[in-house]
Structures are given as structure tokens and as C-alpha cells.
């Protein structure tokens, strides 16, 4: 019925429900067990064995360590093998299982849903976007074949909850694949299902499910501008790395050979739009660190069955950890695991999107723990009566990632992005070990109109994810025609090439920037950062120096963010979008 299943896949995301409690083999009808042919009885027994084994392995996934690249793979492989056998077995023996076991369609749906979850978790573990397509194909089949249709006729609320959870998971995968039209359809269906569920069963979780609906609705509406075709229909485009989207290196250009191998994406902003355990900033940044997914089925010799030996040889995307509201100890543990497993000639990227924590007082000596940092989560609302002001002004904020906390990890190449109201705390870095180190820092204040939009995601991260979307947003454009959008994107590709040359030809630029420039993901982030800085410096609303991005080490301004050529490009783009009046002729920077 569905394609074969096979990669070793894994992890059980927090908040996921218990796997299905499918009834064990029950012979139907009035016949006794002796009346059933031996072969059919064996079929039912084998199915029950596979079902129990799959549940047991699936439950065990949640106990695997969430970090480290190796510990989980063999267990995951075993889980996937059993689900492959179970799926094929129910396909081959459907008739016997229908009549002798009483196999229900929702039970088949439950197995398909587990396989979808396995593919999704394999994506989370490996960052290989192609597995999202595999998860999607199973989730999609469940809906098209109405596997959960009969659930509403049974008087069992726990079965309806399975269906609702399936919808929530399907929506997450569709969001990650930018299938926004389908997301809207699924949200409508989920809304109807929730209404039916809460009317039939007087449950206590109604508010929780309504919150899920509100969250996903806000998430879908988070983009500040839309692209419209000639029929006024929204055009969805991907912002993942695509062929031709990164300016190539010039012949003979000397840049580092470092490769981005691992990244931590951390989200802890108060009041930012989120769904599942992804804030909108995390959602955007993770896509900026991924290539466009390919369909695995087209890469393999046997349709849709991916054997371990056939896995794409080169892992296209850097590995990622997604940490939503981590505590300091969680953040430090994942950082240490990434640092430990970082291969030679590789870079660790740390992206911090979080509320700023500011120092209470000033000390005579200002060290790496005297500037505050970004907020980490506390497990309890009050830690040892911590709501009472600290006993001593000299004590540092405990639930905070200070710049000094990152110092030990600068023993290897480190690329840091901080999007926070206290991002400038991370300007106070010292490169103790001489390894490549760059910090890209967001503005700390925004003009009021921009600040009011912050719930829908940070403008700085938006520039790193989709510069044209961010540029449109800061110019107050709610929609752009598809033809104009394409011309503007084409123009920006030329601008990116010029920025790349500015960076590599500058005589005064810090070598760290060039050492990271060989990696395509980091090259694009650096180029977008420079474009963002140049655009905001010319925008009439952005008057204070705190409203411009900064970096450590500093970029040579005249060669990059205040280059006459780049300013000319920004104004050309503004004219193209008919917003030229919002920009100065040249940077009016005030200090």
C-alpha cells in the first residue's frame, strides 16, 4: 500500500504521546481457536509479535541520549527494521488479519503514523531534509486513505486524541516543507476535529487543543509580506540553500577550507510566535542552514527503499540541535557534546535568539561576566527565593549565558549569531586561543514600528533568512507582485556577488571572516549580514547606532557596510520596489 520503509531512524520528541495500545491478537467470531487453520493462526501470532516488538522499541527511543551522533544509530536501525517488517506483513496478510484478528483501519494508520514519526526524528537527528519528504508521504497517505475516519464513531476519547496528535505532527512536517496551502487545510480539519472531540467528550484538554490551533494560525501568518501572482494567489517560495543561490568563489581567491559541521539553534524569546517546540526565529534559522530537500526515492535503485549502504554518501547539511527554552545546564551539555564531536577543519555555529539579561551594577574590572548575556530557562519559577534581589550586587545572573561561558569553546572554530536586546554583551569577546571566531550581533533597539512586529520574529534573523522579505517588511510592504519579486531576487544575486568581492578584496578585514568564507552556508550568512547592515544604515527610520547590527571582530565599514557601491545597490533595490523615499542618499550614522 505504501512504499517500503528502511533507513535507521530515530528519537522521540518531547511531548509526543504514548504509542498506540493496539489490542493483542483476538480471534473473532464464534469459532474456537481449533477451527482456524494453522497457517492463519501463525499469521496472527507473528503479527502480534511484530506489533509488540515495534511498540517496545518505539517506547525505548525516548530513553536514548538526545545528543551525540553515534549512540542512537544502532537502536534506531533495529526499530526501523521491525517497522519495515510490520508494515510489509500487514500489507501481505491484510485479509487474514481483517477476518481473524479484527484489524481496524485506525490501527494501520497508527503504524503509518509511527513510521512518519521515525522519519521525522531521523531528520531531527541527521538534519537530512530528504527524510521530511518521507515523513510527509506516510502522513499524507493516512489522510488520503482515511485510516482514522472510523475513530470518531468509537466511544473512545483516547483514540480521537491519537488522531488529533497525528494532525499536529503532520502540520509540523508541512510547515518545515513550506506546504503552507496544505497547512491551512489541515488546520481547518483539525479545528473541526477538536470541536467534535470537545462536544462529544467533556474533556479537560480542550484549552490545550485550542492553544495548538492559535499557535499554528499565528505561525502561518508570521511572514510580514507575501508574494502574489497575477490572480492574487500567494506564491510560496523556499528559503533553503539552492543551486546557484550562493555567490561562487572567484578564481584564485584565498579563503579558509573550514566546513560548517554542527550548529546549535537556541530559542528563548518571551512572547514570540511558536509551534511545537520551534519559535519563528528558530524555524527561519534552521532553514537558512539546510539545502533544498531532494526526493530520496529518485536517488535509490529500489523505489522508495533506502538501504543503509545506499544512503547519500555526502551529508549535505550541517548537523543541528534545536533547543527550545533550554536551561543553562542543557545548553552547556549540548554545546559540550557538539564541541567534543566536531571533526577536524570544522566549524561549530551557535545561534542565540533570546531575551537579553542585563548586569545589575558596574564593577571596577569589566570581564566577560560583567555585561550580562542572554536568558536561559529555569526549571522552577523561583530558585531558592531568587525573586528577592540578589544578596550582593557583585554576584552574576545565574540563568544567563554570559560571553565568558563560551570562552572554553573558542578552542575550535566558532561562529556565533546573537539576536537579542543585549547582543552587544558578546562584543566583549577575547580570542584566547587564536582559532577563527566571529560573532554577528543584532541591533539592540529598533524603531517603534519595527519593534511592534517583534512577536512575529526578529528583523535581524529575517534578514539572515530572506533578505528581500526583511527589506520589504522594513519598508512597510505587505505584498509584492511575483514578477517584481523575481526581478528583485535576481538583482540581489548580483549584489551578493559584489559583497563577496568586497569581503575577499578588503586589505583590512580580519582574517577570521575569510577563514569562514569557504563554507557556503557561512558565506551566505556573512553576505546577508553585510547587506542588512548597509540597508538599515540608509533607512530613515533607523537613526541610533544601537539600531545597526555589529560584529566581533569589527568589519572595515568603508570596505563593506558603508561602501559607496553597496549603498548604490540598496537605493536601486528601493527604487525597484518604489520605496526610494524611505532611504537617505548616503549613511547618516550618528555616534
From TrEMBL:
rRNA processing among keywords? no
Report any one BP term from Gene Ontology. DNA-templated transcription
Q: Which GO terms describe its molecular function?
A: transcription corepressor activity
Q: Which residues form a coiled coil?
A: 180-207
The record's listing under Pfam families reads: SCAI (PF12070)
InterPro entries, sorted: SCAI
Q: Where is this region: Disordered?
A: 1-34
Q: What are the UniProt keywords, alphabetically?
A: Coiled coil
Record PANTHER family: PROTEIN SCAI
Protein name (record): Suppressor of cancer cell invasion
- Annotated organism of origin: Takifugu rubripes (Japanese pufferfish)
